[in-house]
Amino acid sequence: MSEQTRHELKIVDLHVSVDDKPIVKGLTLTIRSGEIHGLMGPNGSGKTTLAFALMGHPRYTIESGQVLLDGEDVLAMSPDERARKGLFLAFQYPAEVQGVTVASFLRAAVNSVRGGDGKELPIAEFQKLLREKMELLEMDRSFASRYLNEGFSGGEKKRNEMLQMAMLQPHIAVLDETDSGLDIDAIKIVARAVNSLRGPDFGALIITHYQRILRYIEPDYVHVMMDGRIVRSGGKELAEELEEKGYDWLRQQLADQSVAR
Amino acid sequence: MEVQSTLAIERSLVESYGARRAEPSWMVERRAEALRLFEETPMPQWDRTDLSGLDMEAYVQALRRALESAPAPAPVVDLASPKGVDGSWPAAVVEELQGVQAGSSVIVHVAAGIETPVRSARWLDPELARRGVRLMSLTEALAQMPDLVRAHFMTRAVPASQGKFMALHGAACDVGTVLFVPRGVQLEQPIQIVTWMDAARPLLFPHTLIVLEDEARVTVIESQMSAGAEAAGGVRPLVAGAVEIVAGPSSRIDYVALQTWGTHVQSFTNRRAVQDRDSQVEWILGEFGCALTRGEFESALEGSGASSHTVLVFFADGQQHLDLLNSMDHRGTHTESDIAARGVLNGQARGIYRAVTHIRSGARESGAYQKGNILVLSPDARADANPSVVVEESEVQRAGHAATVGQVDREQLFYLMSRGIPEKVAIALIVEGFLRPVLDRIPSEAVQERIRRIVTAKLGAA
């Protein structure tokens, strides 16, 4: 690793199934901090399954493969441990938690991830940080006293995911279709959140079906996932090409290539 | 066939008990009558609560000893201030009073061993006393306000005929509070009632009688507490308690009861309000203690325009068995009721929650709603939620109910954990969030906080 790379998420030949059905079929990918990766793919390609498996969702079974975060075995960790090690997942459909305010939830999360061993963020500092990040995301202050995701619009839910990411300052963030269902203005806010974290300590995997968001969060690498594995990698031009020509084009390309061998 | 002679208690025992307490003859007569009812009434047959393990013989023996030798209660001590109990009182009581709102009037009862007189202490705001408010022990009230007690004590609200345990209560009642608020008097500060029972005491029959005249208004916060150890000799303490509220026309009471008896106690408690026209009774109930508790809570909406709302929170864990029946009885026209209950079960606890709303024929233009939700945290805990609305009147505004029993949502749990929150903390957050809708309706921050601490302690012990 170069001096620039402070954190690294290394996925090696990962196989994941759901209800005994194989979905991710041998995926290999390394994301280093300082890098933004885009992951595109048609519906059913396994993008969300990958995201949930990385975070340790109990419904997803790891059949084989390895996931290492800074050399440590992620698959042996519970979801909260993974988060404390610096992994973050922005959900496509965040859960609603009745009766728990955004503020109290964030405080518990921040204290778990950034504090621990009595290093809890003092309440005044926490509130200052919260105000700052809410301003960055153009969120009204009343937002913090609403119950977590209850009655939130799609855009508000996504913005709330970004607020959490901004507050927790993860090392590697996976964004699962954070742009789906959003208009351009909302997408720009998501991009602002990601871009504000950009730096040598932060890496992200932006999972998206469309490439719109990748216009605002310029990726260093773009990968395409099809049928459970990465079939092509490239730079940001790959995203533009796919946008123009569609997934069928790529499928055809791949088919031709395998015939040609 | 077994001869029931071991369960019979001589009437003369009750008579001498009443005499030692200097009670008027009509009261002694009532005790004797209640004793007769107790002996005649069979054990209740409750659907999901099996009483066959209850050692009634042991209780009757303990009762006999109490009737024979329990001394009269000590005279009520008048305190210099609401927090003015000294170190001779149990630490839990001192602590409880530290949390009392400034300016609140209080009455405290401590029931130690059967051979020890019940100790009571009181501070009543002199201004309230001047306006005719009375806050007394039952013994005091029998001496100083006998007509009031005679008219209202176990007459309409919780009569001795309301089951075997209420009959027992009527015969053996040993500690009580009487609160009287005269016409038009509206108290701004709550009245706090604290009853504390020693862990080794085998029996307790606490009574609370609240009588409100027209347009009276009061908040009452009642705590029932005991140390939690197993009683000496292995007999689990029996509590048979009653709370009676007589709400005069246009009166209003917010009655908060926090039950934290030790987890070895077996409690049978009836609470009932009889409501005159346009009166309002708010029940805010927290049930957290006892090995076994059967609670029957009811508002009888007799006068037209009367309304009653119940907020109930409960949390049973370990081996606790909770059987709660919440009832709203609509008799008057334009009466209104609402029940909102939320409970949590953990460990191997058993929770039975029943809500009955009865709109009788003639209760025109009445409206009622009930909502009950139970959150089950462990696979071994069992919950029963039984809402029922019986409508016998055709012109009713609304009558609805909803009940759910559910587990922790796995997606919610994963979501919270994915933010670094450890599982135990995440569950605590979910439980707090689940109870929030009912906690928010409790009119006292101190009580909300107290409940939060009880819940946190129960979750931490898991």
Brief write-up:
With 261 residues, chain A is an alpha/beta fold. Chain A is 38% helix and 26% strand.
Helix-strand blueprint:
The complex is a heterodimer of chains A (261) and B (462).
Chain A: E1 8-18, E2 21-32, E3 36-40, H1 47-55, E4 60-69, E5 72-73, H2 79-84, E6 87-90, H3 102-114, H4 123-136, H5 154-168, E7 172-176, H6 184-197, E8 203-208, H7 212-216, E9 221-226, E10 229-234, H8 236-245, H9 247-260
Parallel strand pairs in A: 3-8, 3-9, 6-7, 7-8
Antiparallel strand pairs in A: 1-2, 1-4, 4-5, 9-10
Chain B: H1 11-20, H2 25-40, H3 56-69, E1 77-78, H4 91-98, E2 105-111, E3 119-123, H5 126-130, E4 134-137, H6 138-144, H7 146-152, H8 164-172, E5 175-181, E6 191-197, E7 203-204, E8 206-212, E9 217-226, E10 238-247, E11 252-260, E12 266-275, E13 280-287, E14 292-301, E15 307-316, E16 321-330, E17 336-345, E18 350-359, E19 366-376, E20 382-391, E21 396-407, H9 410-417, H10 423-439, H11 445-461
Helix pairs in contact in B: 1-2, 1-3, 2-8, 6-7, 9-10, 10-11
Care to describe what's here?
The complex is a heterodimer of chains A (261) and B (462). Chain A has 9 helices and 10 strands. Chain A has helices spanning 47-55, 79-84, 102-114, 123-136, 154-168, 184-197, 212-216, 236-245, 247-260, and strands at residues 8-18, 21-32, 36-40, 60-69, 72-73, 87-90, 172-176, 203-208, 221-226, 229-234. Chain A is of the alpha/beta class and 261 residues long. The mean pLDDT of chain A is 92. In chain A, the strands form 2 sheets. Chain A has a 6-stranded mixed beta sheet with strand order 6-7-8-3-9-10, with helices on both faces. A 4-stranded antiparallel beta sheet of chain A has the order 2-1-4-5. Mean pLDDT of chain B is 93; it is low at 1-6. Chain B is of the alpha/beta class and 462 residues long. In chain B, 26% of the residues lie in helices and 37% in strands. In chain B, helix 2 (25-40) packs antiparallel against helix 8 (164-172). Chain B starts with 10 loop residues before the first helix and ends with a helix. In chain B, a hairpin with a 7-residue loop joins strand 2 (105-111) and strand 3 (119-123). The interface between A and B is medium-sized, with 30 and 24 residues.
